[in-house]
Write a structure and sequence with these properties.
Blueprint (H helix, E strand, L loop, with lengths): L1 H4 L14 H20 L8 H14 L10 H8 L5 H12 L2 H4 L7 H14 L5 H10 L2 H13 L18 H15 L5 H16 L6 H14 L2 H15 L1
Helix pairs in contact: 2-3, 3-5, 5-7, 7-9, 10-11, 11-12
Length: 245
């Protein structure tokens, strides 16, 4: 109850003084940059630092009120209809990287900037931006991601990427239930990505069980095998050996 009652206050914080003139200027600059991005697809990274700064100012000054919107998220939905995630990524770059690092980010792009933010959050005042900016300039994007991940975790990682696709609300219950069931089978330490892989492997195995592609069937079964606990792996191999003799 302490945690709940502490959220209730008789005197909520006052909103910032609304600067209408500045709001008009900043919102206009954001729209100008977004239109410019669409025209200059090959050069889109060069203005992301400026865009990030303006987005942070819109949130802090509540400039979204100029357009009679209810909240900052509603403002982002209008400017970033495909995904608000990029906007938040850009803002995290502005908020967490030191000014001397932000000045040079145009040379490396916002995607690498996101990786730099991970290090800056961990190291804070001890973040060595000069060394990591040099690595970001010299290394391909995929290699730089691996280098940052290795620095943060202390181990080698498999290359990865984030995949986006749209789901309807009516589809969510069955998908969430399937992922939840897979998580119970694999263990709580497995990510949702591993759970989705297991579901897909199960589908491929079933689809190719009778008169299907034997290579796909073997591939699916080998992915399943990776998820088994060590004890079950040994029992499975022993049974295969017995059936082969």
């Amino acid at each position: 109850m302490i945690g709940l009652t502490s959220l209730v206050t008789e005197y909520p914080p006052m909103p910032p003084k609304f600067n209408r003139r500045r709001a008009v200027f900043v919102l206009g600059k954001i729209d100008e940059i977004l239109v410019w991005e669409q025209r200059k697809e090959t050069e889109r990274d060069t203005k992301f630092v400026e865009l990030a700064r303006y987005l942070c100012e819109v949130r802090a000054g509540q400039y979204w009120r100029l357009e009679s919107l209810k909240c900052f998220d509603e403002f982002l939905e209008r400017r970033f209809p495909e995904s608000r995630r990029k906007a938040y990524y850009l803002m995290s770059i502005h908020e967490h990287l030191p000014p001397q690092a932000r000045k040079q980010l145009k040379e490396v792009g916002w995607v690498k900037g996101i990786e730099l933010v991970k290090l800056a959050r961990r190291d804070r005042q001890n973040f060595d931006c000069a060394i990591w900016l040099h690595k970001a300039r010299q290394m391909p994007q995929a290699d730089f991601k691996k280098e940052v991940e290795r620095e943060l975790t202390g181990r080698e990682t498999e290359p990865w990427e984030i995949v986006y696709f749209k789901l309807y609300q009516s589809q969510m219950p069955v998908i969430e239930k399937a992922i939840e069931t897979a998580a119970l089978m694999l263990g709580s330490d497995r990510s949702r990505g591993y759970c989705l892989e297991m579901i897909c492997a199960d589908f491929l195995a079933g689809a190719n069980l009778d008169n299907g592609d034997p290579e796909t069937l073997v591939f699916s079964m080998s992915r399943f095998f990776r998820f088994l606990p060590e004890e079950q792996k040994q029992a499975f191999l022993k049974r295969l050996a017995e059936e082969a003799t």
